[in-house]
Amino acid sequence: MRVDKLQFQVWKTPLKPFVVPFKDNWPLELKPKHYSYSIDIEIFALEFENGEEVTCGKIGFIESAFIDVVKTDLAGDSVYNVFDAISADMLSAYKALTINDDFNNKFVGRNQNILLLDSVYIEEEYRKQGIAKNVIINLEKLLCHSLGLKVGCIITIPEDFGFTKEDDPTIINTVNGHRINTRFQTYMRKLGYKEIANTDFMYLNPDYKDRGFKVV
After folding, report:
1. pTM of the complete model beyond 0.85
2. For the chain, which terminus, N or C, has the lower number of CB atoms within 10 Å?
3. Which of 186, 38, 63, 163 is nearest to 117 (CA)?
4. CA atoms of 87 and 92, how far apart (whole Å)
C-alpha cells in the first residue's frame, strides 16, 4: 500500500521519580523531580483516494528515553545520578559520552539533552518505502515540534528487538550481553550513526548530521 503522508502520535511519561532532598527536615509536600522520560511515538500512514485523505492505520512505532541534561544542570542535581537511576545501560552510555563528567562535544551537540533510541518497528509491507529512514533521521525535529524537546545526541544499541528469528545468523551476542543485529547496525551506519569505541553504542550528533533528507 502506497503511503502519501505520515501522521504521528507522540507522548512522554516520567521514567522514574528522581532526587529526594537529603536534608534533616524534609518538606511536608515532597515533589519528586523528573529529568528522564519515556518517549513513545506511534506512526500512522495516510494515502489519498479520489482527492481525499484516508488513514491506513498504525504502521509502526518508536520507543525511546529522553534525559533532560539541561534541566538537571540548571537544578544543580547530578546528571550522573539521573543516568544511573534509569538502567545499567544508561550509566554505561553516560560513561561513554563523557570525559571527566563533561560531555564530549564529538558525541553531544549544543543541546546537551540525550535521547536513547530503544526500538524501531515498521510493519513489513511498508518497509520498502523508506519510512523508517525518514522518521529516524528526522527524529530530533519530530520531538522538537511535537513536545518541545531539544536533543543534542541520539544513542542506540543496535539490538535484536525481538522481531527476528532465534536462529537468525545476523544476530551476534556481545561481551556486554546484548544481542546485536548486524543488519540494523549497518542500516544505522548508512543514516550517519557511528560506533563509540569499546562499547555497543552507536551515536548521532545532530549538529553534524546530513540535513538532506525530509519526511515524506
Report:
1. no
2. N
3. 63
4. 9
